[in-house]
Amino acid sequence: MAARGTSGARERKAKAGCPWFLYAAECADLTLYVGIAKDVEARIAVHNSGRGARYTRTRRPVRLVYTERLPDVGSALRREREIKRWSRPQKVAKLGLGCVERLRASRKLRASA
């Protein structure tokens, strides 16, 4: 029988080398949501099922517009915090989301017409 706590330590050590991802998703109301996940596609599916973050539950569907690979959860959390402090124009410029802004503008034009 293994010593108490060793299997958990082994699991954490094995998971430590797995990358984390920062992602940005565009919500149905054209706002941006930023989060982190180990499996981005699965996380987007959770958001779209209504079981994701409270912010995205009423703004479905969400569409993945950006991902960034990071070495560990600490790095991912720091990067998420940094980006969440940015204004929308800063996010668009620094993450290269110009195409999202053009799409947003065209949707607004169609809605007002």
The poorly predicted ranges are none
Q: What is the correct CATH architecture?
A: 3-Layer(aba) Sandwich
Figure out the total of helices.
6
Distance between the termini: 71 Å
Question: What is the mean predicted local confidence, pLDDT?
Answer: 85
Radius of gyration: 18 Å
Beta fraction? 15-25%
Query: In which range does the helix fraction lie?
Result: 40-55%
Shape: globular
Number of domains: 1
Protein architecture, described:
The chain is an alpha+beta fold and 113 residues long. It has a single domain, classed as GIY-YIG endonuclease (3-Layer(aba) Sandwich), CATH 3.40.1440. Helices cover 52% and strands 19% of the residues. The chain has a three-stranded antiparallel sheet with strand order 2-1-3. The longest helix has 15 residues. The model has no long low-confidence stretch (mean pLDDT 85).
Describe this protein with a few key phrases.
globular; 6 helices; single chain; GIY-YIG endonuclease; 113 residues; 3-stranded antiparallel beta sheet; 19% strand; alpha+beta
Write the layout of secondary structure elements.
Layout lengths: L5 H11 L3 E7 L5 E6 L2 H10 L4 H4 L5 E8 L2 H12 L3 H7 L3 H15 L1
Antiparallel strand pairs: 1-2, 1-3
